[in-house]
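Hi all, posting the design record for the shared folder.

TITLE: backbone redesign
STEP: 1 of 1
STRUCTURE INPUT:
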């Protein structure tokens, strides 16, 4: 069994070509304990400095991912600073 076998790589090529200097698409095929092949696509934007795993171009929302990443980093820093003050 292959999970994610219907991934349209051409759409990822088109997405990356929209900003060729700043976008990365990295597909991988891995196996799991059950002997299944799993296809993952990592997309990254160098301007936003964030990325995400997706199965289709329609799932890409790096601005939303950047906000999540920034919020998580902010909460970590806030926690670290709070601990230092105690």
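Okay, here is what came back for every position:
SEQUENCE:
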């Amino acid at each position: 069994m292959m999970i994610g076998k219907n991934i349209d790589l051409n759409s990822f090529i088109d997405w990356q070509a929209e900003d060729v200097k700043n976008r990365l698409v990295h597909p991988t095929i891995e196996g799991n304990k059950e002997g299944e092949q799993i296809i993952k696509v990592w997309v990254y934007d160098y301007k936003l400095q964030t990325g995400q795993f997706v199965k289709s171009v329609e799932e890409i929302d790096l601005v939303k991912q950047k906000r999540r990443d920034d919020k998580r980093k902010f909460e970590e820093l806030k926690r670290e600073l709070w601990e230092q003050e105690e």
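COMMENT: Residues 14 and 20 are 9 Å apart (CA to CA).
Let me know if anyone wants the other runs.
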